[in-house]
Amino acid sequence: MALINGTDLVVKLAATGSAEQIIAHATNCSLELSMDERDITTKDSLGWKEISGGLRSWSLSSDALYDAVDLGATKVDLVGLFDLLDARTEVDIEFTLLSPATGDYIYSGSGYITSLSVSGGTEETATYSVSIAGNGDLNKSLTA
């Protein structure tokens, strides 16, 4: 068993058709999958609730340190994320390892930035958070 070091997990995103960029100075990231339940309880259920699978959805979030330096074309930061949210741009995403090896999984899909927040306490490093809601399916593939 090869346990994954969380430091190696990254979020890559790009406006559809553009080159993907890693979220700069990320301190954590998470991918959430969920499924709605459909109530299929009948009088034959003997007073027990019965359910069936319903709509599935996914979302992705990341927190990062805020840096006002130009990061070039390899990473995206608060300013770039703001521009994507402001333009209501659909983004392609990958949730993967920084350097995936053959046989590692990559989760990919497209979605919209639904939340972007910045915070900074007195004498603390400024941070920002981004949330992306999936639009359609989330693909799971193995690296070759």
Give start-end ranges of low-pLDDT stretches: none
What percent strand? Answer: over 45%
Distance between the termini: 20 Å
Top CATH class:
Mainly Beta
Give me the number of helical elements.
1
Coarse structural class = mainly beta
Sheet bearing the most strands, described? 9 strands, mixed
Portion in helices: under 10%
**Which second-level CATH architecture applies?**
Roll
Mean pLDDT reading: 92
Describe this structure in words.
There is one protein chain. β1 and β2 (21-23) form a beta hairpin. 17% of the residues are buried. It is globular and about 65 Å long. The mean pLDDT is 92. The protein has 144 residues and is mainly β. Strands 1, 2, 3, 4, 5, 6, 7, 8 and 9 form a nine-stranded mixed beta sheet that branches. The protein contains one helix and nine strands.
Keywords:
144 residues; mainly beta; Pnp Oxidase, Chain A; nine-stranded mixed β-sheet; 1 helix; 9 strands; 53% strand
Outline of the structure:
The chain is mainly beta and 144 residues long.
Topology:
Blueprint: E1 9-15, E2 21-23, E3 26-39, E4 51-65, E5 75-76, H1 78-86, E6 90-97, E7 105-119, E8 127-134, E9 139-142
Parallel strand pairs: 2-5
Antiparallel strand pairs: 1-2, 1-6, 3-4, 4-8, 6-7, 7-8, 7-9
